[in-house]
Amino acid sequence: MDVNTKNIAIVIHGGAGNFKKENQTSSENVAYESALKEAVEAGYSHLEKGGTSIEAVEIAIKLLEDCPLFNAGRGSVFNSAGIVEMDASIMDGKTLDAGAVAGVQLVKNPISLSRVIMDQSDYILLNHEGALEFAKKYNLPLESEEYFKTELRYKKYLKAKKNDKAGLDHDEKMGTVGAVAFDKSGNIAAGTSTGGLNYKKYGRIGDSALIGAGTYANNKTCGISCTGLGEYFIKTSAAHQVSSLILYKGLTLDKAMHSVLFEEIKVLGGRGGMIGIDKVGNIAIDKTTTGMYYAHKSASTPLKIHISD
Ligand code: ASP
């Protein structure tokens, strides 16, 4: 398909994990579905109006960051010091420009900060106080510590603290968010945002802040956003590896994703999922877990919302 055929597309995720739809209450399922729908529709309608894929990615992720259901922005988990430290990244597949933040506090929308770093600086990744300072310089909205202290996440923090054990929730909902979009000009963009792992070590940075690990976009191949145990996605350069398998081995997007998730990450003992769009606008999703919140819509495929198998 020619890139000018207006096959606009967007796919978003709200984290993977070994959870099942039937183990959640129906009101929980409705809440997740409507949050995913709102975010994917907002991104899609922006693309329909001729907006860019970078803008659509930021729009969708901001809505997910503002929703306390997901482990990003407002609903972020706490680290071992009882602090919310967030990671995010965004990448433009046309130029390979990228921006990212690691361990940032108090910033309402770390994805927007990533975008400002991409657009307004010569750098790609800023961390901790330096990232916060940059957000202040560009007048990005900040919130109080109270805003990020959601009851559900705080309970999970206290539980993990009692066992002194970092990692996933007991129900294994990782909750990170991400988006990949394909616009009318055939440009791909990808972004990811997270609070990281519950009770992670103070200062720990995961794959979501790292271009090539949790996020990657290249118009020659695909855009990718990952979710899962970040250390495994870093070890395998997961998102970039999908792109390389397409570029150098001629694999399709879904085969490339499957290979990285199952032949690399799973073999090492890791788990998680990925969403992506290839250079002609085809959407792909894969995961090693039973559950993954995701939604997608394109000019050739209707809205789909998924919680678990
Ligand atoms: N990948 C994220 C991290 O390790 C967590 C997640 O996807 O839920 O920080």
Overview of the structural elements:
- 35% of the residues lie in helices and 24% in strands.
- It is of the alpha+beta class.
- The chain has an eight-stranded mixed beta sheet with strand order 4-3-2-6-5-1-11-12.
- Helix 1 (26-48) runs antiparallel to helix 2 (53-66) and helix 8 packs across helix 9 (253-268).
- The relative contact order is 0.20.
- Bound molecules: aspartic acid.
- Aspartic acid is lined by residues 15, 71, 174-176, 194, 196-197, 206-208, 214, 227-230.
Helix and strand pattern: EHHEEHEHHHEEEEHHHEEEE
Spatial separation of the terminal alpha carbons:
31 Å
Mean pLDDT: 94
Structural class: alpha+beta
Q: How can the largest sheet be summarized?
A: 8 strands, mixed
Helix content: 25-40%
Work out the strand percent: 15-25%
Question: Overall 3D geometry?
Answer: globular
Order of strands, widest sheet: 4-3-2-6-5-1-11-12
Write out the distinct hetero groups bound to the structure: aspartic acid
The Cα radius of gyration reads: 17 Å
Write a concise synopsis of the structure shown.
With 309 residues, the protein is an alpha+beta fold. The chain contains nine helices and twelve strands. Strands 4-3-2-6-5-1-11-12 form an eight-stranded mixed β-sheet. A four-stranded antiparallel β-sheet has the order 7-8-9-10.
